[in-house]
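User: For my dataset I need records formatted as: sequence, then structure tokens, nothing else. Please produce one.
Assistant:
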Amino acid sequence: MSASVGLLLAWATGQDVFFFRSIRDALTSGPQRAEVLWLLAGALAVLLLIVLSARFLNRDRTQSPPTVDYLTLAVDVLGLSESDRRLLKGLARAADLPQPVAMLLSPANLAAAVEHVDESPEGDKLRAGAESLCRRLFGTPLPTLGQRVLR
């Protein structure tokens, strides 16, 4: 407010004080080239800061959650041995199961996985191990199935 009063007094008396003359010149001549460049540089810096902070804040959300091996967890909970875990992994590979722990839900699911085992010495070993595991877990022999249960 005092600047406008001083400007009015200087205008009324006809005396231009250097300070008021510089203000009047700045208002009538427009911005200087250096001022425009500084303004653009500041705007770019703010934009860069916003983009970097957004990427920093969203970096945890873009990462996929770690996959959980439910078969290993189930083997641990059931107290099965390492050889049982290898047997179940082999059955899961042979049956190409998306979630191998489904074999441990019922004897029928275990039998469905065993049906995909090929006729080889390794396959006979998997069948015998699955039979033993079914008797220990469910107290029943491995059933024979005519259809697939797991898929």
